[in-house]
Design brief:
By secondary structure, the protein is of the alpha+beta class. Strand 4 and strand 5 form a beta hairpin. The longest helix has 19 residues.
Amino acid sequence: MEGLTHFGSEGQARMVEVGEKAETQRTATAQGLIEMHPDTLARIRAGQMGKGDVLGVARIAAIQAAKRTHELIPLCHLLGLTGVDVEFSDQDQPAAVRCQVTTRTRGRTGVEMEALTAVSVALLTIYDMCKAIDRGMVMRDIRLLEKQGGKTGLWRADAGNAE
């Protein structure tokens, strides 16, 4: 194994070789937020958006994105996900919807990119479904909250390091 790097011996980009790494249970949790006009949030809550159930569609989009991350992010490995949990919560001040995604696999590489991609696509889906009435929505604070498994074990954003 040449080491865990995205650069080959001549400096070209390559997919990291993970074949010799041990398979372990791996999980990652990411979250993000989309701020919107209060009327937009009220319509989402009431199920009154013209395109249908905004959060239901965003949930499916998040799951699909997690499963297809390797097609979207260069050099990501194709992973057999064993689970994807998508949760939404909303808040009034500022008016926003938060998305949190936890991805799981048993494999040789982590699922952080799958969780982050799922959150991003969920928020983009909310934007797409609501843009006819609110083009000023802002997606922000997309970040990894926690990852478990593999060589580094447990990492949490609040701690900022492996335990």
